């Protein structure tokens, strides 16, 4: 019954000075809200990366020409060709599909609208490697690749840019570098990956890109999907062996190409996001400490104001433990109330950021419990000194206090 009576007295004391209590809790409210919001942003970013990599496929290897470093300057060189892709596709052991790509931003015109968009020249097996599905129309075909047809398939966000219904675009024409292309298909949404959003791209036959649009015989990237029965390291070894042979690279010489593992890239981004999340949460946690100092300050003032009351309680038989418990409970309740309000504020801010800023936020129960528990701990830690000071008052001196 003692603890129940102590809580009731603490709540009455807080209610008697409600406005001051709210100001005192402000640091805790802001601190908890900041922690919840920062962790929600970090967790949302992590889940977005996971979802993007799941959509794009973490079993795809990207092969690119290596940059050459000379005299303190990085020089880009083009070394990959369609022959390299064909060599990788000849009886592969650890690869299921290989597709060459040429990408670049080009001027695109539809009606009276002009855009600067990424145009990807590729082969018919591009959807198979990257997991694309059609929303409307048809894929690029082997016949269109062989005859250098001026056909184009649009990413899912292009119709919205052009302010035209997606299905209505099939059969219409647009211009890429003043060359007319017929729209034959529109892909379903794939989602961005952080360094590229394939939904914003246009896709044309590789041969058309090389001989009609860019005039470039080299390819920018070769994408290879690892077979289900193999592993990424074995697939990377196979790619390296085949390309070194095709490029005539002697033993001991460096590769003139690089192989990027998307899974490793995603893991690196996830680690960076995790560190950033904890850094932001740590900075926000400083607000909780500052709020705790405010709690301690106001509790010291409360002890001074209630010195005579403490003297009366001690004269009536209250022990030092009773007085210590009363002020410690009051400090903790202040922080717990501040923590509850901070939770509500943090969840509200996270929801607003998701709705109006378009950021993905996830408020987890673990982050809420940690922030709430830390606020309670702050109340107990910073309430100890004022509580001990109140408990140590001499009852005779306290009764004399005016």
Describe the secondary-structure layout.
Layout: H1 2-16, H2 18-56, E1 60-65, E2 67-70, E3 73-76, H3 82-89, E4 95-110, E5 113-122, H4 126-130, E6 134-137, H5 142-146, E7 151-154, H6 158-162, H7 166-169, E8 173-176, E9 179-187, E10 202-205, H8 206-213, E11 221-226, H9 232-247, E12 257-261, H10 262-305, H11 307-315, H12 320-357, H13 365-391, H14 395-400
Parallel strand pairs: 5-10, 7-9
Antiparallel strand pairs: 1-11, 1-12, 2-3, 4-5, 4-8, 4-11, 6-9, 7-10, 8-9
Helix pairs in contact: 1-12, 2-10, 2-12, 2-13, 10-12, 10-13, 12-13
Characterize the structure shown.
The protein folds into 2 domains: 2-52 and 267-400, no CATH class; 78-255, no CATH class. The strands form 2 sheets. Strands 4-5-10-7-9-8 form a 6-stranded mixed β-barrel. A two-stranded antiparallel ribbon has the order 2-3. It has 402 residues and is of the alpha+beta class. The protein has helices at residues 2-16, 18-56, 82-89, 126-130, 142-146, 158-162, 166-169, 206-213, 232-247, 262-305, 307-315, 320-357, 365-391, 395-400, and strands at 60-65, 67-70, 73-76, 95-110, 113-122, 134-137, 151-154, 173-176, 179-187, 202-205, 221-226, 257-261.
Percent of residues in helices comes to 55-70%
Ranges with pLDDT <50 over ≥5 residues?
69-75
Described by strand count, sense and barrel closure, the largest sheet is: 6 strands, mixed, barrel
Our count of helices gives: 14
Overall mean pLDDT: 82
Radius of gyration: 33 Å
Q: What is the H-and-E element order?
A: HHEEEHEEHEHEHHEEEHEHEHHHHH
Report the count of strand segments: 12
- The secondary structure category is alpha+beta
User: Which strands sit side by side, in order, in the main sheet?
Assistant: 4-5-10-7-9-8
């Amino acid at each position: 019954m003692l603890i129940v009576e102590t809580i009731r007295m603490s709540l009455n004391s807080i209610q008697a000075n409600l406005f001051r209590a709210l100001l005192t809790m402000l640091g805790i409210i802001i601190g908890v809200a900041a922690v919840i919001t920062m962790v929600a942003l970090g967790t949302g970013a992590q889940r977005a990366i996971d979802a993007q990599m799941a959509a794009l496929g973490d079993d795809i290897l990207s092969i690119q020409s290596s940059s050459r470093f000379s005299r303190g300057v990085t020089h880009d060189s083009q070394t990959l060709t369609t022959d390299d892709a064909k060599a990788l596709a000849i009886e592969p052991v650890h690869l299921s599909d290989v597709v060459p790509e040429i990408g670049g931003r080009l001027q695109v015109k539809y009606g009276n609208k002009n855009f600067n968009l990424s145009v990807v020249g590729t082969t018919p097996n591009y959807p198979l490697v990257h997991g694309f599905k059609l929303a409307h129309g048809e894929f690029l075909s082997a016949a269109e690749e062989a005859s250098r047809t001026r056909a184009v398939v649009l990413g899912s966000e292009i119709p919205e840019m052009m302010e035209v219904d997606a299905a209505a675009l099939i059969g219409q024409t647009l211009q890429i570098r003043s060359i007319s292309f017929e729209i034959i298909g529109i892909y379903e949404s794939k989602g961005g990956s952080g360094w590229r959003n394939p939904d914003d791209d246009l896709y044309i036959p590789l041969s058309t890109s090389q001989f009609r649009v860019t005039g470039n015989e080299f390819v920018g990237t070769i994408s290879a999907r690892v077979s289900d029965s193999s592993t990424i390291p074995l697939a990377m070894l196979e790619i390296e062996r085949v390309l070194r042979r095709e490029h005539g690279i002697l033993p001991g010489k460096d590769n003139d190409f690089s192989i990027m593992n998307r899974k490793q890239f995603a893991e690196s981004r996830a680690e960076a996001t995790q560190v950033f999340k904890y850094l932001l949460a740590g900075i926000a946690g400083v607000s909780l400490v500052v709020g705790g100092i405010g709690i301690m300050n106001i509790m010291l003032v409360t002890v001074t104001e209630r010195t005579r009351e403490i003297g009366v309680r001690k004269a009536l038989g209250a022990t030092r433990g009773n007085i210590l418990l009363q002020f410690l409970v009051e400090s903790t309740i202040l922080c717990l109330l501040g923590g509850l309000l901070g939770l509500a504020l943090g969840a509200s801010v996270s929801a607003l950021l998701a709705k109006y800023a378009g950021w993905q936020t996830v408020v987890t129960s673990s982050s809420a419990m940690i922030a709430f528990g830390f606020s309670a701990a702050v109340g107990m830690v910073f309430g100890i000194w004022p509580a001990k000071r109140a408990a140590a008052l001499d009852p005779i001196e306290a009764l004399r206090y005016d």
